[in-house]
Design goal:
Layout: E1 2-8, E2 12-18, E3 26-32, H1 38-56, E4 64-71, E5 75-76, E6 81-82, H2 96-104, E7 108-112, H3 113-124, E8 133-138, E9 142-148, E10 151-152, H4 183-187, H5 189-200, H6 219-227, H7 231-255, E11 259-263, H8 271-284, H9 287-292, E12 294-297, H10 304-313, H11 318-325, H12 337-340
Helix pairs in contact: 3-10, 5-6, 5-7, 6-7, 7-8
Bound molecules: zinc ion.
């Protein structure tokens, strides 16, 4: 028996098979997420991707004991319902776990993608060797995961660690969650791009320093403009980076972590992001938690979510194991089907 893992994202569906003895990720398959048929189409695609993974490692579907799915959040692990993730059009309160069970007939555990990425970085990436980690992913939205004494902080509804929706400016811009001034509304990739568009709209004198098409600029374009000395790009990005810095300060004060790991596309912005975070942390954080922590870039890139699911498959998180099969949390829940076969 083996565990199948899936990373469902707005852009890609990825899957792999986890074996206890061999390579943690075998039979990797990746497809562009097919949004054309809504959630039911994507769920069917998950089934196809998984069967391809299973076939490629020489297993049959009957060898798969359980399934762990990293999904765009918010998700309630207890009910397996996914609530309107921003990158998944037409997904409103989708009972993903029960639909996957109907389709695949294996017990399934769902985990919020930011929490999965946090687990991946904690066990296999930037946080490995630490006990207390805060993970912040800054991409289309802002998500997070908090690990306290080696345990993912979940909360009674499984929604802890929504760092993107901490209030940074109580009179700030509208956030999709209904609140105003959330970190996500100020500093996500989407917010950086749209704030840049608003800043340069109608400014006739704006001549972008980098070769940026201002009307279609993405967050990455804003970063390029900022490095090239484009004034609106620089001030918008610095404001976003300062907001992330304030978010990091709040996390240092709340959780006293060993490490704060910044992932997601915006984390590729380099010194203009990390020097700004350091400046804000130096100016605002209390000395004791500040000295205990380092702030660093994530290292697993696009693999973080899948690796978090692997950590759960290997029984690194008690909540996953007990929900899967009631086994001792320290015991891995699966081993390689290929190895188990009498050949
Ligand atoms: Zn919000």
């Amino acid at each position: 028996v083996s565990t199948a893992v899936v990373d469902l994202g707005g852009t890609y569906v990825r899957s792999a098979i986890v074996s206890r003895e061999g390579e943690p990720l075998r039979g990797r398959v990746q497809q562009r997420t097919d949004h054309a048929q809504g959630s039911d189409g994507v769920i069917a695609q998950i089934g196809r991707v998984l069967r391809e993974s299973v076939a490629s490692v020489g297993c049959g579907w009957e060898d798969i004991e359980n399934l762990i799915v990293s999904t765009p959040g918010p998700v309630t692990p207890q009910t397996g319902i996914v609530f309107s993730p921003p990158n998944m059009l037409g997904w409103n309160d989708v009972p993903l776990r029960s639909k996957l069970f109907e389709l695949l007939h294996v017990p399934t555990v769902l985990v919020n993608d930011a929490n999965a990425a946090a687990l991946g970085e904690f066990y296999f990436g930037a946080g490995s060797g630490t006990r207390n980690m805060v993970y912040i992913t800054v991409s289309t939205g802002i998500g997070g995961g908090v690990i306290v004494e080696g345990q993912l902080l979940s909360g009674p509804s499984g929604t802890a660690g929504e760092i993107g929706h901490m209030t940074i400016d109580r009179t700030g811009p509208q956030c999709k969650c209904g609140n105003v001034g959330c970190l996500e509304a100020i500093a996500s990739g989407t917010a950086i791009a749209s704030r840049f568009h608003a800043a340069v709209a109608g400014v006739e004198s704006h001549e972008p320093a980098a070769s940026v098409d201002t009307s279609r600029a993405t967050a990455a374009d804003v970063v390029r403009g900022a490095y090239a000395g484009d004034e609106p790009a620089r001030s918008i990005f610095l404001d976003a980076a300062e907001a992330i810095g304030v978010g990091v300060v709040n996390c240092l004060h709340l959780f006293n972590p060993d490490v704060v790991v910044i992932g997601g596309g915006v984390s590729n912005a380099g010194p203009i992001l990390f020097d700004t975070i350091d400046r804000i942390v130096g100016a605002r954080a209390m000395p004791v938690p500040r000295q205990a922590a380092i702030v660093m870039k994530a290292v697993l890139g696009d693999d973080a979510g899948l690796m978090g699911a692997v950590a759960m498959a290997l029984g690194r998180t008690p909540s996953a194991s007990t929900e899967l099969s009631g086994v001792d949390p320290k015991e891995p829940v699966g081993h390689g089907c290929a190895d188990a076969r009498p050949e």
